[in-house]
Amino acid sequence: MGPNGSGKSTLASVIAGKEDYDVTEGEILFKDEDISELDPEERAYKGIFLSFQYPVEIPGVTVTNFIRTAINETRKAQKLEPMPGAEMLKKIREKADLLGIDRRFLSRSLNEGFSGGEKKRNEIFQMAMMDPTLAILDETDSGLDIDSLKVVADGVNALRSEDKSIVVITHYQRLLEYIVPDFVHVIMDGKIVKSGGKELALELDSKGYDWLKEELV
Amino acid sequence: MTFKDKLLSSYIALEDYLEYDSPIHDVRNKAIKIFEEKGFPTRRDEAWKYTSINALLKPDYAIFSNKEKNVKLEDVRKYFLHEIDTYKIVFVDGVYNAFLSETTHDSVDVCLLSSALVKSQYQPVIEAYFNKVAKSDGLTALNTAFTREGAYIHIPAHKEVRKPIEIINFSTGNEAAIFLQPRNLIVVGENAHVQIIERHQSLTDNKTLTNAVTEVFTGKRANVDYYKIQNDRLTASLIDHTYISQEQGSNCQVHTFSFGGNIVRNNLNFYQNGERCESTMKGVTILGDRQHIDHDTLVHHTAPNCESHQDYKGLYGGRSTGVFNGKIVVDKIAQKIDAFQQNNNILIDDGASINSKPQLEIFADDVRCTHGCTIGQFDEEALFYLRSRGIGLKEAEALLMYAFANTVLESVRIPELKKRVNKLIANKIGVSLGFEL
C-alpha cells in the first residue's frame, strides 16, 4: 500500500521486467535466484505474473488466441508439448465460468472496448489460466464495482496456497476485506517504511497516510 | 533503341499478325498515338514522384512470346486455390493455356478476350464496354494499343456465380526478359454476383515486367468481390491499372495482398455513377529487402448517398519502401457521402520508409470524409504486455503484425483464400503462431 506516486506500480513493473526501467543497484531474488537480468518472458517462465493496472488493448488478437499462445509459448520454454486443444478449451471455459466471464467475450479482441472492470476481470482470468507462483496485482480494484470486486477476489483466493505468493498493490482497504492479507507493507517515496499484519491496513484506512508520515518523523 | 522505340515499331508488326478487321482497330490506333506522345511516366509526373521505373525499362524485353513452353500442372498447382472448385483463365507468357484453364459459356461467359474480340456474338459487349472506363495515361494507352489477350468475363443480370474465377498469368522464363500486357474486361449485369482472384507468377528468376489493365463494369445492385494476390519473385515487377465503373446500388470490394515482386504499382480507380453505391478498397503490404510498392487509389463520388471505405495496412522491413496516395473526389451534387480512408504503417527496420499522402477534393457541403494515416514502430507497451505472459519478443512482434493485418483479412469472403493469405503472411513474417486469424 502507499499514497499516489510512492512507487508501487514502478516496483511491480520492475519485478516483471519492464525495459523502461534500469536497475542500478541491488538484486531481485525470486526463490533464491537473482532475476534482475532476465527478459520479461523469462520471468514469466519462472512463474511470475503481473496483472496490469492499465491492461493494453490488442485489436486483432482474440482473448482465446492470446491466452493459448501465452500458455503454449510458456510450455515450449519449459520443454513441454503444447496443450491439446480440447484440454485448452475445457480449461478456458472453466476459468471463464469461475470469473463470470461470458463465453462471447472470449472471441472478442483482447481488451478492445472493454470497460475498466472487464479489463481487470480479464487480467485475473489470464492469471487463473497461467497459474503463476508469484502473482502481482497492480491496482486490480480500481474501476471495479462491489460485485466485480467479489468475483475477482474469489478468483484470486482460489489461487492461494502454501507454495504460491500474491502481492496485491492497492490504495484502499476495500479489496483487502475480500482478499485478506497475511502481511502489509507500506511504500513511501520508493521505500518500504512500515510493515505489519492485516490490522495495519485497517489503521491506514481510518487514519490515512498522513498519520503514518507524522509517525515516521 | 529505347524500349519506347522498340514498342512503337513492334506495334506495326502486331497489327499485321492479327490479320483481321478488328472492332477495336481504331481504339488501338488512337492509343498508340497517345503512348507515342506521352511515353513512360517519370519522376517529374506528380503521380510518379516516389516511384521510378527507369531501371525497369532497361532490359531487352521480348514483347511477344512465340515459343510455347509447356507448364506442368504439378509445378504450378500451389498457385491455384485448389482447395475449392473454381473457374480458371490461365495464360502462360501471355498465351492462353487450355490445359490449365477451366472456362465456361454455361449461362455466364468466363473466357478469353482474344475470342471476344473476334467472334461476332461478343461484338455488342465489346463495343459498349471496351476501353470505356480506362483512362489515357501513357501506360494504360500502351496496354490498350497492344490489347491481344486477357480475361473476358460477362455475367448476365441476376446471375450469382457460385464458383470464384481465378485469373492467373504465368511467365516461364523462356525469354531472358519478357514484357506482358494482359487486358481484362469484366462486365457484371444487374444484381449479379461474382468473385475474382487475380495473380501474376513468374516461374523462374528471369525478368518479367507486366503492364496490366482491368476494366470492371458493375451493373445496378451488382456485387463484385475482387482479390489481387501479389506474391511474385523479386525479379518480377508489376504495374496494374484497375478501373471500376459502378452503377446505382452496386457494391465493389477489392483486396490487394502485396508480399512479393520488385517494384509494384497499383492504380486502383472506382467511379461511382449512381446513388447508393458502396466501394471498398483494402490492402495488406508486407515487404522486406529492397522491395518497393506504390498504391495509388481513387474514389470518384459523382452521385449522392454513397459510401466508400479504404483501409491499407503496411509492414515495411529491411530497406523496403512504400507509397500510399489515396485520392477521394466528391462532386458538388454528391451530397450525403460517407467516405473513410485509413492508411496505417509500421516500419520494422530503420532502413525502411514510406510516403503517405491522402488527397481529398470535396465539392459538396453535406458529406462525411474521414481520413487518417499513421506511421510508427511497434507499440512498446503492447510488446511488454505480451512478453509478461511468456510470449517471446520475436513471437510478440509477430503477433502484433498478425493483429495489424487482421483488420483487412476480416473482410475476405472466401474462407480458403483467407487461410492461404494467412499462410503467406506467416511465411513473410517468418514466425508461425499456431493459430489463424
Percent of residues in helices of chain A comes to 40-55%
Discrete helix count of chain B: 9
Rg of chain A, rounded, reads 18 Å
Number of strands of chain A: 9
Listing every helix as H and every strand as E from the N terminus to the C terminus, the arrangement of chain B reads HHHEEEHHHEEEEEEEEEEEEEEEEEHHH
Helix content of chain B: 10-25%
Molecular shape of chain B: globular
Computed Rg of chain B? 21 Å
Strand arrangement, major sheet of chain B: 2-1-5-8-10-12-14-16-18-20
- The biggest beta sheet of chain A, please? 3 strands, parallel
The CATH class of chain A is Alpha Beta
Give a structural overview.
The complex is a heterodimer of chains A (217) and B (437). With 217 residues, chain A is of the alpha/beta class. Chain A has a single domain, classed as Rossmann fold, CATH 3.40.50. Chain A has helices at residues 8-16, 40-46, 63-77, 85-98, 116-130, 146-157, 174-178, 198-216; strands spanning 29-30, 33-34, 48-51, 58-62, 109-110, 134-138, 165-169, 184-188, 191-196. In chain A, the strands form 4 sheets. In chain A, strands 3-6-7 form a 3-stranded parallel β-sheet, with helices on both faces. Chain A has a two-stranded antiparallel ribbon with strand order 1-2. In chain A, strands 4-5 form a two-stranded antiparallel sheet. In chain A, a hairpin with a 2-residue loop joins β8 (184-188) and β9 (191-196). The mean pLDDT of chain A is 91. Chain B has 2 domains: 3-273, no CATH class; 378-437, no CATH class. In chain B, the strands form 2 sheets. Chain B has a 10-stranded mixed β-sheet, with helices on one face. In chain B, strands 3, 4, 6, 7, 9, 11, 13, 15, 17 and 19 form a 10-stranded mixed β-sheet that branches. In chain B, β1 and β2 form a beta hairpin. In chain B, α8 packs antiparallel against α9 (415-429). Chains A and B meet through α2, β4 and α3 of A and α7 and α8 of B.
